[in-house]
Design brief:
Layout: E1 2-8, H1 12-24, E2 28-31, E3 34-38, H2 41-54, E4 60-66, H3 68-72
Antiparallel strand pairs: 1-3, 1-4, 2-3
Helix pairs in contact: 1-2
Length: 90
């Protein structure tokens, strides 16, 4: 299962803190304020608990849980994370 975390946090320090926290837990940035990681409801609740301590009035955070099948069926337009890696020269 995949967990998608999307947020709009106005405070730079709090936004950076959440970003680093997600990365330390294996989440990958797919947009400026969108991360994806593996896990289930328990991991999503951990994200919720951590984020609630950071959010100010007016800030928003959404957590989506989707199956691996749904993730594989996504349509991504633009540069993909894997495509961003340099191709080795042979």
């Amino acid at each position: 299962m995949r967990i998608i975390v999307a947020y709009d946090i106005s405070n730079d320090l709090k936004r950076q803190r959440l970003s680093l926290w997600l990365q330390q837990r294996g989440f990958t940035r797919i947009q400026r304020s969108v991360f994806v990681g593996r896990g289930g409801v328990a991991v999503a609740r951990d994200v919720e608990r951590f984020a609630k301590r950071l959010l100010d009035p007016g800030d928003k955070l959404h957590i989506f849980l989707i199956s691996d099948v749904e993730w594989e069926r996504r349509i991504a337009v633009g540069e993909d994370l894997e495509a961003a890696q340099p191709t080795p020269l042979i």
